[in-house]
Task: inverse folding
């Protein structure tokens, strides 16, 4: 499993123009971050694609009483327990969705949680160390339907094989994924403590038109 070990300051990388093929992929992925998922948003995800998110689990779903599980009306992107042994993944990469249906469930739930999600800036990074990836410096403004708003800058890495996304990773503030501590990220973390992606897949349709 490839990882995004940040051995240089990605924020200082220069920009480059996207190819037409890359721009199509970028537009699709941005529609997910903008909480506007459609079938076309997933057109370039491989069936076995993997998605790594910055907010990890704290403990397994089996430890939660049913009263703490979220309702279908308020499901953000929630991620399953890693399907691999814990020592096979770097310690910061503990929040993971594997397979296209699981990834769809994560993003299709976002409109239930956010009143809006606006892309304030997005540039394609020229990173020679990642020749088979699209790397984005993304600034996104999230507004909860109830609660705070937050502007986040993140490094989004889309690793491709045969023109399809096989690995999608997001790293807030271009830093290795770790548990966040402020109110916004803490709120997201709480959701991810209450259910795993297998539950979300049952509660949030893989078809974005049915959300």
Result:
């Amino acid at each position: 499993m490839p990882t995004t070990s940040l051995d240089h300051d990605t924020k200082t990388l220069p920009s480059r123009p996207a190819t037409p093929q890359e721009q199509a992929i970028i537009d699709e992925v941005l529609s997910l971050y903008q909480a506007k998922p459609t079938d076309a948003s997933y057109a370039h995800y491989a069936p076995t694609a993997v998605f790594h998110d910055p907010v990890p689990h704290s403990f397994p779903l089996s430890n939660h009483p049913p009263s703490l599980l979220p309702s279908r009306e308020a499901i953000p992107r929630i991620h399953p327990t890693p399907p691999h042994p814990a020592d096979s993944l770097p310690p910061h990469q503990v929040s993971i969705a594997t397979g296209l249906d699981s990834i769809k469930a994560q993003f299709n739930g976002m409109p239930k949680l956010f009143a809006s999600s606006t892309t304030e800036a997005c540039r394609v990074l020229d990173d020679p160390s990642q020749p088979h990836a699209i790397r984005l410096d993304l600034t996104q403004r999230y507004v909860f339907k109830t609660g705070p708003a937050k502007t986040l800058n993140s490094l989004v890495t889309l690793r491709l094989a045969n023109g399809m996304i096989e690995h999608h990773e997001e790293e807030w503030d271009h830093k290795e994924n770790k548990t966040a501590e402020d109110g916004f990220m803490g709120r997201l973390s709480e959701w991810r403590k209450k259910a795993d992606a297998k539950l979300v897949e049952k509660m949030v349709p893989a078809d974005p038109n049915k959300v």
In short: The chain has five helices and six strands. Residues 20-33 form the longest helix (14 residues).
